[in-house]
Structure formats: structure tokens, C-alpha cells
Amino acid sequence: MAKLTYTIVEHDGGWAYKVGSTFSETFRTHDEARRAAELASAGQQVAGSTDGIQYEDSAGKWHQELADGRDRPQTEISDDAKGG
Asked: Over the chain, what HEC string results?
């Protein structure tokens, strides 16, 4: 099972959460960013329907896969003292 970490970081004059190298929108406070990360993380746990997906990788190559809607990642939230 995949694991996603939502990291709360200082970003763009405020606070955001980051998953991998992707930042959320910027929030005024750390608490707002953490609450948004909690909501996004909880949404990751909701099963969906199995469906075909298409995505482009970092090299610009397109892929097609069948995504099992029951295969949900584990999630956690952490604070990054270094900022982002």
C-alpha cells in the first residue's frame, strides 16, 4: 500500500501543505494549513470506483492504467521545521 505524507511548511508568505513536490494553496496560518491537510488526507481514504486513468509523467510520456478505487493510500501529516 502506498503512503502519502502531507507536510505543513512555510510557503509563499504563509503556510501550505506539501505532498511530494506539490504545494497546496497558501493559507494565512499554520493551523489553517494543517486543517486543510487533514481534510485532504481524509479524502484520500474514501474508496471510489475502479476506472481507467491517463496521466503524463515528468518526461512527458503518457500512460493509461486501470485504477482500483478500493486501493487507497495510507496518509499521515507532519510538520517541517525547515519550511518550504
From this structure: CCEEEEEEEEECCEEEEEECCEECCCECCHHHHHHHHHHHHHHHCCCCCCEEEEEECCCCCEEEEEECCCCCCEEEEEECCCCC
